[in-house]
Amino acid sequence: MPAEDRAARVRALLESVRAAGRTALTAPEGRVIAEAYGIAVPDEELAADVDQAVAAAARIGGPVVLKIVSPDILHKTEAGGVVVGVEGAAEVRAAFHRIVANARAYDAGARVTGVQVQELLPAGREVIVGAVTDPAFGKVVAFGLGGVLVEVLRDVTFRLAPVSADEALSMLGSVRSAEVLRGVRGQAGVDRRAVAELIRRVSELVADFPEIGEVDLNPVIATDRGAVAADIRVILAERPQPARRTYTREEILASMRRLMQPRAVAVIGASQEPGKIGNSVMRNLLDGGFAGEIHPVNPRAGDILGRKAYPSIADVPGEVDVAVFAVPARSVAAALEEAGRKGVPNAVLIPSGFAETGEHALQAEIVAIAERHGVRLLGPNIYGYYSTWQDLCATFCTPYDVKGPVALTSQSGGIGMAILGFARTTRTGVSAIVGLGNKADLDEDDLLTWFGEDPHTQCVAMHLEDLKDGRAFVAAARATVPKKPVVVLKAGRTAAGARAAGSHTGALAGDDAVYDDILRQAGVIRAPGLNDMLEYARALPVLPTPRGDNVVIITGAGGSGVLLSDAVTDNGLSLMEIPPDLDEAFRRFIPPFGAAGNPVDITGGEPPSTYEATIRLGLADPRVHALVLGYWHTVVTPPAAFAELTARVVAEFRERGVAKPVVASLAGDVEVEEACRYLFERGVVAYPYTTEMPVAVLGAKYRWARAAGLLGGGP
Amino acid sequence: MPAEDRAARVRALLESVRAAGRTALTAPEGRVIAEAYGIAVPDEELAADVDQAVAAAARIGGPVVLKIVSPDILHKTEAGGVVVGVEGAAEVRAAFHRIVANARAYDAGARVTGVQVQELLPAGREVIVGAVTDPAFGKVVAFGLGGVLVEVLRDVTFRLAPVSADEALSMLGSVRSAEVLRGVRGQAGVDRRAVAELIRRVSELVADFPEIGEVDLNPVIATDRGAVAADIRVILAERPQPARRTYTREEILASMRRLMQPRAVAVIGASQEPGKIGNSVMRNLLDGGFAGEIHPVNPRAGDILGRKAYPSIADVPGEVDVAVFAVPARSVAAALEEAGRKGVPNAVLIPSGFAETGEHALQAEIVAIAERHGVRLLGPNIYGYYSTWQDLCATFCTPYDVKGPVALTSQSGGIGMAILGFARTTRTGVSAIVGLGNKADLDEDDLLTWFGEDPHTQCVAMHLEDLKDGRAFVAAARATVPKKPVVVLKAGRTAAGARAAGSHTGALAGDDAVYDDILRQAGVIRAPGLNDMLEYARALPVLPTPRGDNVVIITGAGGSGVLLSDAVTDNGLSLMEIPPDLDEAFRRFIPPFGAAGNPVDITGGEPPSTYEATIRLGLADPRVHALVLGYWHTVVTPPAAFAELTARVVAEFRERGVAKPVVASLAGDVEVEEACRYLFERGVVAYPYTTEMPVAVLGAKYRWARAAGLLGGGP
């Protein structure tokens, strides 16, 4: 039917349901919606008497199911009120009389409305298609295999609704039991297009009607010739929250530019008194070397740390890009009002004492002030932020000055401190570290929008507990991922973790399965833990992007080769099948008992020249796309020698324009630690005492390269 | 039937199959075995004519299946030769005629032997029961859920055969889809005892008859009233390898004691010449401070590094406990023969050039010499070994002198070097580091037998690529685990890894699923990677054993609390439901907006006294069994203050006899690294920049405590 008729029909139906004070649709109402959206359901008809039943069965054709319809009989099967697979007038007639008689015997007083005559669905694979309203992502469509096994094993996949036909089709391949749908043990596969089309239509339905909270087609019977929903369940949603003020991409970029590259910063609550946050922030701004204007604001002091102080931000001369608030929570509103009037675009709210301590009204008040004036808020309840390329340290923590390509953000202050310590000890090059705290306004999507454009930033790593607007985040991620990797540590993955998230931020942690699927679809690299996020952030910008899937392990320690191979498989990478000519070439350099193939095992007693020759081979051969090195500390090739030759050869090839990712696991005495530092600084990602981390990082780089469309194969 | 009759009957059958040159048993032969072992199979009978078919159906009772039997018809269903669910003389008669007619129509020349009349099995849950011969573990029984989903998802569990009734029953709970067997969606659960009994009988069968290589009952139809094998498949094994010489536990302990606590060590191939292995070994023995006798053996030199040298080990005066071989592979046999004649119980074979380079005959030769003389071989192809409490460094690597409770072994020299470097940088207390290399003789089970008894060793960590005798290892592990944790890093887990294992040691890497289940059953803690093994080894002896399941997180950083909660769930631990009185007690110390419950979030701005008061509460309350601390670096509580107070309080409680495991994650600037070292040395397992590792280590301790029977609940 035409789209407008369809919409009108469904809207009228939903309004009548709402008017009746119901949230769940009845089965006939569900059928109306199914028909409007072209969702196949079994043909059926209510027969008031036996002749109507015979006629209905004849019209439907083929075997049918008869079911008693009575408001007094809840358990039809128990009452003998269901007969399956009758065909032809005589059988239908007999069955009709039998179930009516059974119903009477079961409950003599039961009112019998009639008998439902329903098409008997063919045997097929049971699948589930549904849609839910996720607190972070809104309408989300779900697909999984039906039946108890998958209900037990929870094998289900999600996408943002609406989905395209291709996206819907991809869902059939995203479940663990995907092979089943292709047909196994001689059974035919399901009609993939029909199932995908059903998914697409359900996703369209919930996208068209936000007032629909949940749809459940369970089971859908999928055969090699179609897919029919045996049952459809539709539930209306709660009324949505009022929308917050939104900003365009251009507005976001404009205010974020002034936040991250300010010319003038005011510190509201700047203090002379050591130990006060307003003192630490001032000192860090000054010590950090920020070249712009720094204006202390304090009603009492005329001069703070050598800078003229102003009683109010209104008194500060000229434009101010950022106002850093280092005053108690109760003093924020008034000062924010003044900042808004002055046209300050960014307020960095360090103080705690808002939603995280139950002061929701106070937080709502400052959000309202900010929205009125168009001031963007960072925080509250944060450590502040670093913009290293501006020598800007607007925090009460210690400065950080290793400029580099990674932007790191955290929802939690503790995690922010871990970022700082890790970055310092590993000398990670950083473009920004930003605390998000309560996220009263600025959110991961705003930051990502900026970092996506920021030329200093080549990798973004974000710790988060929830997303206030999952769709905006997905949009920002999709815009960023083709340019640079986005790593996310999503805390509150597990039930226990989600509960702690609830008590920490008052945020409703989403179902992790939804986050996992949708972040992957957005091309985000999900870090399994804090340490992984930090290592990915440190290593990803160091590694060149691979140009293909062929990974080669070159190892001096056979034992490392085995563990590195395990890690390659664990990380979804492919050990290259070495072509005979390359195998022959490797063999020329390694002892006869060394193993060519892959891993290339050069054996432990070899001099630096063997490492060098084989690494050169791997870099020179265009069929090889990434190298994983396993070094074994020996007297013949000490760690420093290995580090020197590897760094030199890799640099030589990069100068020639051959840039392949090279990662290394160093097994040896403590000198390997210095060798790893040496290598890391020279673009080879190297770790001591672990065969897992170098390959995990390479795996993360590959996941990004795939998501960015640089390697074929989607996210 | 009586066991001896049963055995005779099966043995006769298997011999006749072998005599016929077959390895696969026919269906009727399978039935004979099933009947002998009381494995229920569908009742069936071959009917030569229609009257026999009617009689057979009447005897069997209930609905039956008829199947054409013809040597010329392979695809019975295609030929219309199968009818399912006929009952009563008339139906059986009609069906008989129909399928014979169909067969004739299908192939006019087909010879028809008759019609098989078979009991129709009831609808039920399909499961699979089987047994295979694993290269490492021998006869292994398998259980899983049948059907395509589980075939696709590979949800299966293994045990060493034979199993007890209880072990068999435990297998039903060990599959991921275990819930299905208990009954879901209103379906009845299966008869668990009947399924378990079937498993037990299959395991008994393969244990009784090692010549049976594989048994497959697929599918078994399990209902709420029994379990019947719809099909049984039996395949004979290859002839077994000839057995190697075995040693009793007492013999193993006697020779291992002399290896690990020797009074006299000879170095065969000792050398004056720096750079030679025979020189490094001599120097390490001397520099390491070994107090026993050290005898260089070298045909030329009269004096090596100040010790009198002997031309042959035969010339060394007195008893020698260990002969360390530092001569080329080709010279080993002759010297080993002399060592054997002298009665030296242990030969440590450093040289490579044996099986790992394809020299299998050379390795077989030295094994034969060793077996003849009862000399135990360590290696060949190893870095040697350390026995730190004896100040014994019999390696060509550098000495290691931090005496402590962990014994570490590795199959690979590279991994051995990683162990050494890691131990040195973390100052891990070590009782021994042993290289196993080719494992021509001494194996993990010998070492484990010794370390289980060694009072210096409180934890054993082993890197291995294969087990030559998985059953001996399981026996040694079962004897050791009740006393001390055994950590295993099994390399070659994945297909790619297993292939590399094959090329490295010539060992056939077993199916990882078998290793995984059987190591878990043996109570072994499996480390997922090299770094995990090293961290578990370092941390497990530091942690006291928990007395119960209640884990409490106390955190200054809410963000760490969420991540620590995730880690608690990931590691199978339980966040305690805090009782109201304890909750009240915690609340007294934390700000009103801090979250009690679990995690206990004391919030970030608190002084050391709040950490101290809450940690004291957790240690003092007997309902709390383990603490996970999340520290957030602030000016108010700097890292050193947190470390000092935590170590002091923990020590105070331990002095009072209250020893609970306490682990900590420190989020902060680089000073947290020193704080972690301080804590670790004082019995608190602490890590910087990771919320995962402290909880992973606690999880490993819990897994051990459960396996050791110290916590209720088996492995």
Automatic annotation (TrEMBL), chains A, B:
Q: Where is the ATP-grasp domain?
A: 31-236
Provide the alphabetized UniProt keywords: ATP-binding, Ligase, Nucleotide-binding
**Which Pfam families does the record associate with it?**
ATP-grasp_5, CoA_binding_2, Ligase_CoA_2, Succ_CoA_lig
Q: Which GO terms describe its molecular function?
A: ligase activity
Q: Which domain of life is it from?
A: Bacteria
Keyword Transmembrane attributed: no
What protein am I looking at?
Acetate--CoA ligase family protein
Q: Which organism is it from?
A: Streptomyces tricolor
